[in-house]
Design goal:
With 1135 residues, this protein is an alpha+beta fold. Among the domains are: 293 residues, Leucine Dehydrogenase, chain A, domain 1 (Rossmann fold, 3-Layer(aba) Sandwich); 218 residues, Rossmann fold (3-Layer(aba) Sandwich); 233 residues, no CATH class. The chain is 48% helix and 16% strand.
Length: 1135
Amino acid sequence: MQHLIKAWSSASHQQNNARATVHRIARMDDIGIKQLDGNGRLLGIHRFVGLFTSKTYTEDAENVPILRRKLSQVLKEEGAEEGSHDYKEISTIFNSMPTGQLLTSAEEDLASDVRLILNSYHDDDVHVSLRPDILERGVTVMVIIPEDRFSAEVREDIEEELLRVLNGQRLSSHLAMSGGGQARLHFYIAVPEARTAEVGVAQLEELFSGLLRTWSDKLSDGLEEFVSQEEAVELSEFYSRAFNAEYRAATDPVIAAEDVRHLEAMRADGREISIAFANRGASTSIAGIKGATELKVYLLGRRLILSDFMPILEDVGLRVIAANPYEVKLPKDSGTIYIFAVQDHEEHQLTVDSRGELLSETILASRSGDVASDSLNALVLSAGLHWREVDVLRGYLGYAFQIGAIPSRISIRAALIQYPGIARELFELFAIKFDPDSSATKKERLAEITQRRKAFFRSLRRVSALADDRALRRLEELINVTVRTNFYLHGGSEPTYRSGGVPYISFKFSCRSMEFLQRSRMLYEVWVHSARMEGVHLRGASVARGGIRWSDRPDDYRTEILGLVKTQMVKNAVIVPAGSKGGFVPLLLPGESEARIEEGKKQYETLIRGLLDITDNLVEGKVQTPDRVVAFDGADPYLVVAADKGTAKFSDVANMISTEYGFWLNDAFASGGSNGYDHKAVGITARGAWECVRRHFREMGKDIDSEPFTTVGIGDMSGDVFGNGMLMSEQTQLIAAFDHRHIFIDPDPDPSTSYAERKRLFGMERSSWEDYDRKHLSKGGMVISRGAKEVDLSPEAQEALGISDEDSESLNGESLVQAVLKAPVELLWNGGIGTFVKATLETDADAGDPPNDLVRVNAPDLRCKVVGEGGNLGFTQDARVEYSLLGGAINTDAIDNSGGVDMSDHEVNLKILLAHGVASGSLSIPDRNELLEELTESVAASVLQNNRSQSLAISLDELRVRESVDDFRDLMFALEKTAELDRNSEGLPTADALVERRESGHALARPELCVLLAYSKLSLMGRLLRSRVPDDPVAESYLLGYFPVSAIAAAGQESLEAHRLRRQIIASQLTNDLVDLMGSAFVNRLVRDTGHPAKEVVNAWLIASRLSDHRALLSEIENQQSKVSPRITTDGFWV
């Protein structure tokens, strides 16, 4: 008590703990007045307890005497002169303070508070005055805050925190808004003794500052981690308005700052979407869910279609538990933040540090279409692979399915997902082999791969299912036989180049290195894969050419291409390169026709780029492997493509890409473009096939150029092969024809009238049989829709097609097509697309052409005498053989329509010959193109001579096989022994079947002899290229004879001798010359009978042919063909 007495002034005012019970309920005022003696010693204290009247609290302080004196003292202490600005401000402040505080506070304390208030004008900080009363039963607290931060909520928060910290009870509170941009809160709080000593002003100021900081302030603080303070304030103000109340209530400002950073980065980069993963702690709820990982999707200018997006999340292995969207109001683009609560499939949070970015990139790539969204993407989460690395495995998976190495895509996906460690091992094998950034040599790479393969096979012990084990082994085998890839050429896991709108990957396989691929008898296969396409390219030799097809068989297009390339190998027996074939399927075709064509062209470009990416180039005569392509095969610079079904107008596209790549073949890369030979304009395929048709009829004693003959056909006049073929002879009587739209019937056509009308249709930009002028039809002629449900034929049409009255009663479009095929005519001309004739024992599935299953007929049903196969695959090979054995005249499509590939090959080789002159500047491109055009008919004549020669060669072999079938049997054995021929796949008879045929008066059918002719040529050419025969000066004449004289003159002798395919040209021309004249079995027979190798047999024949001048003799015999019996002429050739 003594220290309180000492602290008490002569007259002091406090409030005690007693409450008044009259007038008003309040703590009573306690006024103490000291009584002192003459020496100033305390005699006692007089205390007066009661309540001041309410007027004391409502009057201005300066009107209350005791307070007026205090104000005067404060003014004096602050040195404020009456009438001054400070005088007025201090008076205003004094009057705004609570009367109770004025009464109980000493003048010096009041002056201190006034000074603090004045110094806090327009200050953004919080200031606190804390003063215990004399009795230490209470404390007076003044809190000064910026006026713009004040609110009833803030007042309540400050009071709540103050009472909590002081552990007290509010006795009174007062709010003053007296100017200076501030609000003042005055509290008088009853507190336990000594509690005030534990609480400091600084502590309270920090506490209240935190309470005053708005969500926007805290957002600004968070943004200062990323930008300057000034920018943080601006962004905070902007986004505080952009984010709605729901978002602000649910989102911590620190997290909101991360959201702002994402949105600002997107706005700066022009991105529409961004994704982020985060773990916020086990106690933090994400979209109302605890124990989940937060996935945020930021969108600008568009909405998220959840039905499209959710499968993407599921494919990467995420369980989506909950989701909340929040709108963001931006000036130009509306924005949305989607918050997903996700877990892995074991209901755990994700390992964001190691998987978050990988998952984000995968989701974005899936959504943009850069990668397919399927369950294989779960390997990103489970195996830690990048989505591009997963796409490598997806590429191998797709190829394995197409070649039949695995039964389904789904099962192998499931196996890889079940064993993510094994999936990672597979990719690591690939990376070790092909990553160009590795300093390891190829030998070191292969050594490491050997060790890794052992580890891989040990890992397979964990695989429980035999089918899964087998499939995983097949994937490893494919990686093992891969010899090149463009994966690292275009950035590896960070794709730097796109084609068709998306990244793509190509792989090159060595077919002879894997038992499963050896069956194809190809040398190389290239597989190109993206999210928008798949494609394959098969080559039978290092120098090979063939078309690229737009396939409509997505599930088995590789099977389709393999069948085509085998045909191409046979067809190319007459030209320099071996056979190749490519095909692709666009995976995301739009519905509109023009858009479909454009998409198909883009994906064709992807296939071409995928091929060129991993093809060597020739630079100044030296082979150059593409950068960042690690090659495990030899030099491989020859790649030539051509048009095929669906790609007829794409040659210029391919050549444009060739030029872009600086490929050495330039516009010789794809034949038939703007600067090449237009096959339709030249009519070369039809003209070549027609030479074969002429041969058939000639051997029957009929000249179809001077005698009318009846014909039915497959196709229409707008087509190249059909249209040109039906204009080859003015004696053609086209009785009927069909395409996919119409059936044309002209029962008794006038040859000249119908020829003129067909010529008119051919000259139209677009035409169909519907455009045929009906007045030029003979009596009973008609044009019918192929889809007609019922067909009422005229009697004349019925008679011309040989349809009985009974059959005519149930005709529809499909059965009428069959009737056309079975018509009793002299020639069936196939110039269309599809397989329309099969053998009796074959099923429609064997034909491999489902769209024509309902119109296909069996070979014995044909009543035509001759078949001309201008189009591909019109007959199955078994159907040809069956038809031939029944007396029909037919070759194979490979023989009949070889003119197209032959002319394209001449074009390519001419361009290679002239390339040196173009490069040196001695021959301009326009001059070269003009020269090529001038040479058109010269080249065509050479091509047609090959058609005539091969057709004659088959006729000669027909004579030979009747005399000595054993020579041909031995030829087949020899080709099988060297693995050059697969008798079963080519439909050739076994030894026992040959015996049975011989007993029935037959030997080998003409189509079978066509196959043997081609294989014998391919075999002999291969042997010659492995020998020195093409380098013998005696053989030089074949090179000179191949090119027109004017082309050699323009190129120069040096260019001729330096021609890249010099040896191949000599070998192919020599092979054609020898085999066409001497027969398929000749070389093998002499090798068998003499024991000398093939090269010696050829050398001997070369000498004999030069001594006898066989070419002059052949020319003389050919000139006599029109004057003598075809049998006599054939005998003249027979050796």
